[in-house]
Amino acid sequence: MKNSRDQGFDQYYNAQVVVEQKSLLILATTLSNHPNDQKEALPTIDAISPKLGKPKAAALDNGYFSSTNIVGLHNRGIIPYIATGRQPHYSTLPVLLPQQLVIPTPADTEKVKMAYTLRTEVGKEIYRLRKCTVEPVIGVIKEAIGFRQFSLRGLQKADGEWCLVCLAFNLRRLQVLLKNASASSPTTC
């Protein structure tokens, strides 16, 4: 990938995960050497095992926004909720005040249609949950597990390493889920 510091190239990888919302377990992983996420959404969704079923919706940040991803997710029977741009941390009063939603026309662009979808109550709720689904998983992998760089070189080897890291996360998460389940279940005498 192109390096932003000196305009050279470095060996980086673009790691992706699909996370189940309630359990926070990783359902699928992919790894590529593409510099941005636009080409990653569909292969990552396709990496979900058919035994697990397919998601009804997918919440993705603005790095994944493209007409190809929107159409591809719809063709797979998945409703996309993809941010159309970066949201500022601090908003002005006109942005914070409720605004009348204008239903897009069929002639409107995919960006206008997606922006409308994200402003609906369902869209807001689903996209808001993305921040507390995927982001904590990546944070635990980086901070608690301590994984910040690959030890192996080559896409195939690094992909195997990424799978092991995600497996380690899932094992940690399963331990927490089982502990919580046993603590909340009533004891019998």
Key features of this structure:
alpha+beta, two-stranded antiparallel sheet, two-stranded parallel ribbon, 7 helices
Describe this structure in words.
- By secondary structure, this protein is α+β, with helices and mostly antiparallel strands.
- Helix content is 43%, strand content 11%.
- The protein is built from seven helices and four strands.
- The termini are far apart.
- The model has no long low-confidence stretch (mean pLDDT 88).
Task: Give me a quick take on this structure.
This protein has 189 residues and is α+β, with helices and mostly antiparallel strands. The protein is 43% helix and 11% strand. It is globular and about 50 Å long.
Please specify the SSE layout and strand pairing.
Elements: E1 14-19, E2 26-32, H1 41-46, E3 57-60, H2 67-75, E4 79-82, H3 93-96, H4 110-119, H5 121-131, H6 134-144, H7 155-184
Parallel strand pairs: 3-4
Antiparallel strand pairs: 1-2
Euclidean distance between termini CA atoms: 61 Å
Shape: globular
Low-confidence spans: none
| Averaged pLDDT | 88
Strand order of the largest sheet: 1-2
* Helix/strand structural class: alpha+beta
SS element count, helices: 7
Number of strands: 4
